[in-house]
Amino acid sequence: MVRARRGSLVFFLTLLMLGVAACASAIMPAAPAPTPSLAATPSPQPSETPKPPAPPTPSAASVALATTPVLSVIPIETATEAPTATATPPTITLLFTGDINPGRCPAQKALAAKDFSLPYQLVAEKLRSADITIGSLDGTISDLATPAPCPLTMNLIGPARSVEGLQFAGFDVITTATNHALDCGSLGWRCKGQTLDETRRNLLGAGIQPVGTGDTPAQARAPVILERQGVRFAFLGVNAVSGENTWVNEKQPGTAPLSTQSLPDVTADIARVRPLADVVIVLPHWGVEYTSQPTADQRAWAAALVAAGADLVIGNHPHLVQPVETFAPGGTVAFALGNFVFDQGPKETRFGAVFEATFRGRTLAKWQLLPVRIYDLYQPRWVAALPGP
Question: What angle is formed at CA 23 by the lines to CA 20 and CA 26, rounded to 5 degrees?
Fold first, then answer.
């Protein structure tokens, strides 16, 4: 009887313990499932490697970056900075010419030969070798009027096919901001800007960028920016000759003005384009015809253009070669390059120079003048030197 009771008691206690275990297992939470990592590969955590020192307090910018979701994490223990080799800056060559007249004798010679490359045939190889070739168009390129005879007028208009010669010679940029930008031949001057519009269209159609003129002040003052080997060159064209007769305004197409009054606008344009380019180049049409020295205005404006951020200032209009000088904080100014393709009579106007600028990256490493002489009132050829004074 006692055994039976003890057996019942043991049986009862066994049932009680089993019930408690079942309740405990029912209320105990399950082990959490593993969470997927953001890292593409697991970050090693070797126990023998001491932890790196705590980094400095992050800046606001680094905090913002740190909170940005990432697809992979590079362990700090294995992150190394790749060695940086000093790259050699690219060598980039620019060539700038003197004034180009598309009308009168050059036009008549090309028309007679049925070949508009004729004026450039003896200089084109060198011009095409440059990374960027820049010219100064002292006239218009339009079929609105026929070219004048050789050389009986001051109205300089050439046939639309004149652009074939510029294209053959390898020009990339042409400043049209000159005192002949609105010439209309037998129709006189201005002609509501039709010849200027056709000039710009003809140049663009040949892959040449016009600069310094437009239908509105904003268009005329807009820069042309070309990139070569990763270096960006910005060009601005301005004109100080003939004033109100050629300057653009809200009612008349024309040239971007350069004067004492408009100088703040020009320097503002330089400052505006400066962050967009590595090299800023201004192409002013200025000075007095047939003079070999710059005027006081030219010098004052050159200093202001360089101070505003211009690296190079390459001028034209005097039809003679003027000096090349350096202005603080280091800009180079060629005041005038004389004639390039032109048909003026005086002997000294039949010479000119091509300004060759060699850049190492964004830095002007060297420059030189390449003399030319114009033969038969239309064709430049390389010569050893310019004539003496």
Answer: 150
Host domain of residue 368: 91-382
Q: Which residues of the chain have pLDDT under 50?
A: 1-83
Count CB neighbours of 239 within 10 A.
30
The two three-digit tokens of residue 316, written as one number: 């034209």
**Residue 234 within a domain:** yes
Tell whether 5 is covered by a domain.
Answer: no
Which residue in the block uniquely carries the two structure tokens 């109100």? Answer: 244
Main-chain phi, psi angles of 11, to 5 degrees: -60, -40
Structural domain contains residue 199: yes
pLDDT at 389: 74
Structural domain total, the chain = 1
CATH code for position 320: 3.60.21.10
- Give me 4's structure tokens: 């039976």
Asked if residue 48 is part of any domain, the answer here is no
Task: Provide the whole-model pTM.
Answer: 0.79
- Cis peptide bond upstream of 151, omega within 30: yes
Q: How far apart are CA 337 and CA 334, in angstroms?
A: 7
Cβ atoms of residues 364 and 357 within 8 Å: yes
The rounded distance, in Å, linking the Cα atoms of 283 and 312 is 9
Query: How do residues 323-354 score in pLDDT, each as one tens digit?
Result: 999 999 999 999 999 999 999 988 999 999 99
Span 359-381, pLDDT tens digits: 999 999 999 999 999 999 999 99
Q: Where are the alpha helices (DSSP H) in 39-139?
A: 60-66, 104-113, 124-129
Q: 352: how many CB neighbours lie within 10 A of its CB?
A: 27
Question: Which two three-digit tokens encode residue 209?
Answer: 């960028």
**Residue 95 structure tokens:** 């060539």
| Cα(367)–Cα(385) distance, integer angstroms | 16
The predicted structure's pLDDT at residue 152: 77
Consecutive H or E run containing 280: strand 279-285
How far is Cα 183 from Cα 148, in angstroms, rounded to an integer? 12
